[in-house]
């Protein structure tokens, strides 16, 4: 019995270090590599692949003459046999013409992969176009390019949540010969009051060289947005009917609120009704209210689209006049002698007959 216990103890002593050793070997054998790295003076991105699940961090640095000018550290989680992309936005303005951007992948305190990229500032990195407008909104993005010289470009639009890409779309081989406008509608829902960053990554084709890449950044905060369509507002003595259109990818689950105020008495009535449909960009719903005992007179009418927190998203004002009802005239009934009308008619007929006989 004692011999069996001693053998088990020896096995445990051997197995435990072996398990720990194999775990380290397994981690070391996990191939973590940087498959792509880019940087200009606006932003930088890295794509990392791993043969196994990996948790670490990516450190972005901008160096001048070997000295760090700016750095950003980003948590990095990569699934096995998958890729993860991280994007950072540089905050400082360049003071020199040439820098070196570097990204390092860390496992704890150990660097397991690193890549550098030369960043140029000035005429060397200038594209053959000017960005006239780059405006993200609740419903999508508008990008307007004005070319200096004819060229062809690929345009990648990315929506960022912190350092991660939550949406991207690429327009390839866009010909820039005249002013060119790119419009992209968001095909996903946005979170109310959340700040989003949008990046345009534009690749200018070059005949004997790799594409010239420039990035542009714009921010917006997602909010609910709807519009009361003026041409579809109907207000009369019976009530009010309106059509409301969604203008944001933040879902609007709100109310139609209609208020009327008598101009003479200042008496106010308010009606509220929840919209049947939840609105997003391009969708519409029609709703209405019916007045209750609205007296004749002139009224100011205010129509609002309010959210669930009673915040007015859109408002429309108009006026209404309800005329007085026409007065009913009472007709007095005259008491006449029985048969008087009949006798009068007979007399008229006899007189007409004599005239006919008399020629």
A few lines on this structure:
With 359 residues, the protein is mainly beta. The chain has helices at residues 2-29, 340-357; strands at 32-39, 43-50, 54-64, 67-78, 82-89, 98-107, 110-120, 129-136, 140-147, 151-161, 164-176, 180-185, 195-206, 209-221, 226-228, 234-235, 239-246, 255-262, 268-274, 284-290, 297-306, 312-322.
Shape: elongated
Count of β-strands: 22
Topology as a string of helices (H) and strands (E): HEEEEEEEEEEEEEEEEEEEEEEH
The main sheet comes to: 4 strands, antiparallel
- The average pLDDT is 86
End-to-end CA span = 160 Å
Overall structural class, as computed from helix and strand content, comes to mainly beta
Strand content: over 45%
Ranges where pLDDT stays below 50 over 5 or more residues in a row are 18-29, 330-359
Strand order, biggest sheet? 4-3-6-7
Give the count of helical stretches.
2
Helix content: 10-25%
Query: Mind telling me the C-alpha Rg?
Result: 40 Å
């Amino acid at each position: 019995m004692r011999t069996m216990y001693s053998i088990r103890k020896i096995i445990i002593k051997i197995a435990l270090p072996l398990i720990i050793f194999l775990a380290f070997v397994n981690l070391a054998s996990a191939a973590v590599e940087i498959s792509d790295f880019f940087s200009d003076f606006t932003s930088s991105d890295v794509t990392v692949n791993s043969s196994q699940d990996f948790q670490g961090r990516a450190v972005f640095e901008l160096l001048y003459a070997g000295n760090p000018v700016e750095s950003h550290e980003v948590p990095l989680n990569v699934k096995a046999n998958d890729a993860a992309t991280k994007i950072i936005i540089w905050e400082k303005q360049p003071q020199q013409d040439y820098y070196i951007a570097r990204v390092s992948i860390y496992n704890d305190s150990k660097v397991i992969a690193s890549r550098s990229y030369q960043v140029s500032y000035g005429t060397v990195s200038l594209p053959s176009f000017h960005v006239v407008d780059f405006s993200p909104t609740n419903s999508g993005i508008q990008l307007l390019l004005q070319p200096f010289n004819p060229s062809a470009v690929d345009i990648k639009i990315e929506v960022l949540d912190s350092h991660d890409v939550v949406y991207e779309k690429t327009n390839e081989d866009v010909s820039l010969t005249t002013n060119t406008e790119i419009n992209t509608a968001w095909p996903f829902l946005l979170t109310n009051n959340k700040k989003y960053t949008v990046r345009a990554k534009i690749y200018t084709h070059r005949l004997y060289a790799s594409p010239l890449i420039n990035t542009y950044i714009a921010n917006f905060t997602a909010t609910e947005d709807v519009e009361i369509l003026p041409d579809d507002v109907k207000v009369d003595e019976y009530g009010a009917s309106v059509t409301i259109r969604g203008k944001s990818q933040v879902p609007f689950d709100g109310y139609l609120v209609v208020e009327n105020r008598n101009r003479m008495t200042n008496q106010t009535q308010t009606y509220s009704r929840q919209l049947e449909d939840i609105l997003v960009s391009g969708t519409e719903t029609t709703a209405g209210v019916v007045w209750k005992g609205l007296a004749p007179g002139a009224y100011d009418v205010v129509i609002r689209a309010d959210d669930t927190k009673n915040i007015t998203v859109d408002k429309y004002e108009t006026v209404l006049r309800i005329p007085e009802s026409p007065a009913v005239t009472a007709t007095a009934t005259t008491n006449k002698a029985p048969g008087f009308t009949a006798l009068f008619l007979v007399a008229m007929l006899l007189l007409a007959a004599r005239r006919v006989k008399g020629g």
